[in-house]
Design brief:
340 residues; three-stranded antiparallel β-sheet; alpha+beta; 36% helix; 2 domains
Length: 340
């Protein structure tokens, strides 16, 4: 760690040594924009920045017209996520910080605590939005909205490697040690600072997903692979080509499959665009076995499509997805997030 009177190197994603790149794809480092002034950032905060580089490549989000309070329809669209603080920026109500690094430790602590204690009838001007690393978890929440067909419910996807440098991503469970006391922090929540738009984000209507057969996926403990694949491909095609395979992969790995089934999944999904960038780190998974399988499947497909002599690595990745890779309670955990 640098001393208080020293300046930490201001690395950009291209300037930083490869050994320091912790996030999938090596972009959107949380040190971009970090002033390096350790008088303004405690050791625990700096550690949080380091840990938060382990962000999953993809995050998912469910929102309705009421997300964020009465003005939810202005906060969330198919092209942009705007935390309430930015909607009210420049008013007497609130002035949104230009960067998380412009906020004092006390300001950040209070905003995070208020965000995580969110009360729908009294929304606070938060600079953060909430997302999850698990698509099945998000779909399960969408199903729980009793008026999901009528209240403008949408499912969004975020590519964290394409976020603006100001969009700092924080994993909720790590915040208890740093900022927030006595708040139950869910394992499936990530907080993203700032407005999100552009190529990093897209959302589609949840009703479209229902009409395209979402409710047919995993309706029993014994799923039909060909039927699941047909539905997953149809759902994926609602998203942009650069997001389609990620959606399909995370849908098809919501349940564990054997190697032969995974090979069939790969063959069927190979018609979708496979990004060479997925040859890099698949990103963190927040300890979720389903997310790990989805990320590894994308990585395996990139290896198969783009790596020279990648067959052995491809098969090793499939084996790692197929075998049990979690705790004995994995089945119980997955039952909570499997869409139905």
């Amino acid at each position: 760690m640098t001393k208080a009177n020293e300046t930490k190197p201001h690395w950009t994603s291209r300037q930083r040594p490869a050994a320091e790149v912790g996030r999938a794809g090596g972009t959107n480092s949380m040190f971009r924009g970090f002033s390096g002034n350790t008088q303004e950032h405690s050791a625990s905060e700096i550690n949080l920045l380091v840990q938060s580089q382990k962000t999953p490549r993809f995050l998912f989000r469910v929102w309705t017209s009421f997300s964020g309070g009465p003005r939810g329809s202005k906060l969330n669209t198919v092209e942009e996520i705007m935390p309430l603080a930015f909607l009210e920026s420049g008013t007497s109500v609130n002035n949104a910080p230009a960067s998380i690094y412009d906020m004092s430790q006390q300001q950040t602590k209070k905003m995070l605590a208020d965000h995580l204690r969110y009360i729908i009838d009294s929304p606070i001007p938060t600079a953060f939005s909430s997302s999850s690393q698990s698509l099945p978890f998000v779909l399960d929440h969408a199903k729980d909205y009793t008026v999901a067909r009528d209240n403008n419910c949408h499912i969004g996807i975020i590519d964290t490697t394409r976020l603006d440098e100001k969009n700092v991503v924080l994993y909720a469970p790590t915040l208890n040690m740093i900022y927030v006391d006595n708040v139950s922090l869910p394992e499936h929540e990530y907080l993203v600072f700032g407005k999100i738009s552009g190529p990093a984000y897209q959302a589609v209507p949840y009703r479209n997903m229902l009409e395209n057969g979402l409710s047919k996926l995993y309706t029993s403990h014994v799923s039909d692979l060909k039927s699941d694949l047909a539905v997953a491909q149809k759902l994926a095609n609602d998203f942009r080509p650069d997001f389609a395979l990620a959606v399909a992969a995370h849908l098809m790995t919501a349940t564990r499959r054997d190697v032969d089934e995974l090979r069939e999944v790969v063959e069927a999904l190979s018609e979708l665009p496979i990004q060479e960038a997925w040859l890099g780190s698949p990103g963190d998974d927040g300890g979720d076995p389903q997310v790990q399988r989805g990320a590894r499947l994308l990585h395996a497909m990139a290896v198969r499509a783009h790596a020279e002599n990648g067959h052995q690595s491809f098969m090793a990745l499939l084996q790692s997805i197929a075998k049990p890779i979690a705790t004995p309670n994995e089945d119980a955990k997955e039952a909570k997030v499997r869409p139905s």
